Amino acid sequence: MAGASPAGGFAIPRLPSPSGSRTRHSINNSFSFGPQSLVDSLTEANTSGASNNRRSYLDPSRSILQTSPLRGSPRQNRRTKTTASRHPLAIDTTDVFQDDADDEDDEDGREWGIVDRMRLWRHDALMQHLYDSAAFWGDKIVSWTNDPNDAFWLAQTYFLKHEYSRAERLLTRPFPTTPPRTGPLASVTRGTFQPPFAPAAANAKGKGREMPPPAMGSVPDLDDLAPGVQRLPLGPGEMIDVAIQYEEGVSRLVDMSVACRYLAAQCQMRQGKWSDALEMLGESNPFRNTGKGAPEIPNMDGGIKIEASMCNLRGLLMLKLNRGDQAKSCFMEALALDIKCYEAFEQLIDGEMMTPEEEWEFVQKLAYREQTPEDADFVRLMYLSRLRKYKHTEDQALVRRRLVDDYGLGDNPDVLYSFADALYTQLRWADCYAVTSRILALVSIHKATIPLHVACMYHIKHLNSKLFLFAHELVEKEPESATSWFAVGMWYMCVEKYPEARTYFSKTSLMDPRFAPAWIAFAHAFSMEGEHDHAVTAYSTCARLYTGSHLPLMFVGMEHMILSNVKLAEEALFAAHHMCDSDPLLYNERGVMAFMNEDYESAVTLFAQAIEIADVVQTSQVAWIPTFINLGTALRRVGRLENARSAYLNVLRIDYRHVGALAFVGLTEHLMDNVDEAIVRYHQALSIDPINGYVLELLELALEASADMGPFGTKGGPPGGEDDWGAKMREHRDAKGKAVAQTTSPVDDEMSMSM
Of 217, 303, 453, 560, which is least packed with CB atoms within 10 Å of its CB? Predict the structure, then answer.
């Protein structure tokens, strides 16, 4: 019979039990981690005559059965409602997971036996992470029932215990599909045979829908036992025969259910048997041309399509086999088949497999309305918020605002991470650090946030010591996490111990080969140590791994400029611009390249574009001081001295103590023959950096020019000659004497006469 719905609002089949009418929900939160608050709450519920429901919520003797299936498995052998012409893998996508609604009728009046009780023990042990208990009792259940569903859950238990070879063996070995002749079920079955996943009769219900057993002494036909199971697709247009035709009543679990096949492939991948796992899944999606797995077809049970999960696993295997382009296609197919498959989205976005524009177009065109009509807008907004922030900045800001205002996710770590990522892209380190600190205060560990948090502490120099403590804390909490050792490497970067930093970055990349920050930082360590050839190699490796990111190619171009490999630098920077045309830093580097080629007009244009884009995305102006300096220098080279001085003065508005800007303003004034103003600027620069050799030399030149010019600021003596100069001096003296006489008081005259 069907029990009452618990607080969550869903109904589950339930057998009679002393506590079958009681439901569960989560307990109230408490500031204390001790059990006393629960004891007090339970005592209060018992003494106040509270409902049975409330007491069951707090009863520590209760199991977790409400969150686990209460029957032989998540379901008994399901009677499929499709014709035998469909392929078995296409039929059984959810057989081992789904309950059949009609099975509730089968529970009426049925009493529990030893197998039912042990199935409950198994599932409750799984919920309580007692995997040895679940495996112990589950093994006995399989010996008694030969039920494929029981075998599947036993394999799941082995998988959770990390006993992958044992789970694989159970799923791939010949498995009997008839109950044993001895055991607790022998008297119940009386030797009848019930094939797994047998097709249903058209007008049968309950147990009457099952296929009749074969005649005694006859050999059942394989099509009668499991229709179509003898042929499995391993690729488009390719069908292969099952390798072994087993004896009567024997088959393999991987040939009977897609879920079993998927789990077997998972086990093989965990063992490093990547080629075997790929063979198990197929080189490409075998359901693609069946007409049953289109992206527009939603999952009727509301879960995640196992077909999408298989595509995601196929993509992971392609990555292991260094087939990046095929991996990208698999992840895109997985996400297109089921937008709820977040793992595929994470691999595409965090792995930077697509350019920013490709990401935006692909995520916008997913079949949200067709697959999740009620939640389509929310899922779309969440995915858009995780995209890179180089383009569509206004749309991205609107997405974040809607998630906060419409869905109340202002304090959600993933939404906060979207804010932090946007701030980091804008080079606003302090603001980004404030947001990442809030995220880590909420959840302690957030994989996507930690690299941003560490990078901000690296850029903000007074937080370097805090980075040391944070790295130690991460290593203590998560010693098996790649992000922990990445933080250690960044600390060594702060203290300029680059060989040690590379050691830890190498360890990070070994632990997680797809962790992009470690690869970039590894290359940075070579560059900052002056080993530019090694840096080019490391950046090139990054470019090969992260084909959708323009940053490695841009860094390759920067290294080639240092090495004076002008042609190679141009090629790398052009390729990076082709991938992302909205990064102001890339425009700055292209401007430097044009300046090196003495194409000063192009350099002026590129530097101006960099500043314009930086203003659009509201980046920190302090970060773009070098670009303002570059722009002023390029303008000075083309003779636009007024504009050059304006560019330098913009720097002084941002940082009035910037030595370079003060010196360049002085140089520009000097070129404009404003020698006195140039001398003032040089002195201001030297007051901040007294031993700057370049400024000292410029000051010496300005003083010599001032001495040559004389007090009138022009060479060749006073203007008009010596006679004119003498007349002007007399006029000046006379005018000054008259002014003094007029200001003398009568008292002063009397005093002078008396003296």
Answer: 217
pLDDT of residue 84: 36
Cα–Cα distance list, 570 to 421, 555, 556 (Å)? 29, 12, 10
Residues 609 and 546: their CA atoms lie apart, in Å, by: 27
pLDDT of residue 704: 85
Number of Cβ within 10 Å of residue 280's Cβ equals 26
Closest to 233 measured CA to CA, from 290, 178, 187: 290
Cα–Cα distances in angstroms (integers) from residue 245 to residues 252, 260, 358, in the given order: 10, 19, 47
Report which of 212, 214, 196 is spatially closest to residue 204, judged by C-alpha positions.
212
Largest CA-CA distance found in the chain, in angstroms, rounded: 156
Residue 292: what pLDDT?
Answer: 62
Q: What is the mean pLDDT of residues 171-183?
A: 77
CA dist., res. 664 & res. 678, Å (int):
9
Q: Cβ–Cβ contacts within 10 Å for residue 318, how many? A: 21
pLDDT at 33 over 60: no
Q: How far is CA 595 from the centre of its chain?
A: 37
Residue 259's H or E segment, with its range, is helix 258-270
Q: How far is CA 322 from CA 91, 264, 377, in A?
A: 32, 22, 35
Instruction: Read off the amino acid at residue 457.
Output: M
Nearest to 350 by CA among 449, 428, 416: 449
Q: Which amino acid is at 403?
A: L
* Residue 304 φ/ψ region, left for φ over 0, alpha for ψ in the -120 to 50 degree band, beta for the rest: beta
Q: How far apart are the first and last CA of the chain?
A: 131
DSSP assignment letter at 24: -
pLDDT digit string, tens, across residues 215-248 = 433 333 434 433 333 333 443 333 333 434 444 5
Instruction: Determine how β-strand 238-241 pairs with β-strand 250-252.
Output: unpaired
pLDDT for residue 170 is more than 70: yes
Q: Phi first, then psi: what are they for 174, rounded to 5°?
A: -60, 130
CA distances from 143 to 139, 185, 196 (A): 6, 11, 16
pLDDT band at 302 (very low <50, low <70, confident <90, very high): confident
DSSP H or E stretch at residue 234 = strand 231-235
Pair 11, 5: CB distance under 8 Å: yes
d(CA 702, CA 188): 109
Q: Which helix (H) or strand (E) holds 519?
A: helix 516-528
38, two tokens: 């629960």
Instruction: Give Cβ neighbours of residue 177 (< 8 Å, ≥ 6 apart).
Output: 146, 148, 193, 195, 196, 225, 226, 249, 250, 251
Dist. CA 378–CA 103, nearest whole Å = 35
265/254 Cα distance (integer angstroms) = 10
Amino acid letter for position 152: F
pLDDT surpassing 70 at residue 692: yes
| DSSP state, residue 201 | P
Beta-carbon count within 10 A of 609 CB: 15
Residue-wise pLDDT for 697-707, tens only, equals: 989 888 888 88
Three-state DSSP state, 681 = helix
pLDDT score of 86:
36
- The answer to whether the beta carbons of residues 565 and 590 sit under 8 Å apart is no
Inter-CA distances, 272 with 320, 347, 514, Å: 9, 19, 17
What span, in angstroms and rounded, lies between the C-alpha atoms of 472 and 680?
Answer: 50
Whether the CB-CB separation of 452 and 432 falls below 8 Å is answered with: yes
Residue 272, C-beta contacts closer than 8 angstroms, at least 6 positions apart: none
Which residue did the predictor score with more confidence, 381 or 105?
A: 381
CA-to-CA distance for 278 and 269, rounded, in angstroms?
A: 9
Determine phi and psi for 20, rounding to 5 degrees. -65, -20
